[in-house]
Design a protein that fits this description.
Layout (H helix, E strand, L loop, with lengths): L2 H49 L3 H13 L2 H8 L4 H12 L10 E2 L5 E12 L9 H8 L5 E7 L6 E3 L1 H9 L4 E8 L2 H7 L3 E6 L8 E6 L3 E3 L2 E3 L4 E5 L2 E5 L4 H25 L2 H8 L3
Parallel strand pairs: 2-3, 3-5, 4-5, 5-6
Antiparallel strand pairs: 1-6, 2-7, 2-10, 8-9, 10-11
Helix pairs in contact: 2-8, 4-8, 6-7, 8-9
Length: 283
Amino acid sequence: MGISGMEKSKDKNQSKPNRLLLLASLTGLAVLVLCIAAFTVLKAGAAVSDSAQSPQATDAQTAKEYENDPTALLAAYRHVEVASVSDAIEQLLGQRMYLSHKMQPLFPTHLAGWALTVRLEKQENHDSHAVDGMLEAIDHGSKDSVYVMSIQDGADIAGMGGLMGTAMAAREFSGAVIDGAVRDTAYLRKIGFPVYATGVTPSTLVGHYRFVGSQVPVVIDGVSIHPGDIIAADSDGVVVVPRAHAADVLILAQQMDFKEHTMYAAIEKLKSITAAVKQFGRL
């Protein structure tokens, strides 16, 4: 065999492994493409499945998340309008849980916190320790508490003033709701501590009232308030959210807020509130 023939045979033999290597590479690439395509299809199917979940299922899942994260629950209540919270409670529970128009803020605010309840009964006395319990309740209170004070016939009695407000602020309370009057209002405004009360008076309860208990159920304006309930308040007033229903109430209130805020633009565009109410089903 000549030299050229030997070279051709050698090239032919060397090309076989190259072709096999190329075929293996192409096969591997095809398998990889098929795997990627399958993963994409599965991912798309999962996305469709997620998007197909009913609103009720999504709401239930969100409610569960809020129930497991009280901090997030409370933070969310600070961003929803109290009017929507009140409407949501009435729709879900069939109850009136807002306090009367007499309960007014010292200054515009928006708060939410856990109810820390205190009850005082009218009783003339000379006991210097008769109301110590209301102070101890503050010292044992946790961050984000709302000091809820029930005072028997307290319209003209100051349930708290600057000293108690300073203590609550130092312990990072969210605010106070007093079923009676308040004093030292200039100082409370100065330190920016939110207080809702039925009036303002310079009087004191020392010598006229006795502490009955803290972290006990109280009733204000016919509304039952239990320790740990959520107190939400803004310029529209104060509402009490039963703790057991707080997550469900929040979700519905958020939906009401969104719908109402959307309606503002619709009313301006349609120049008709009746048409907007008919379209959105919200008033």
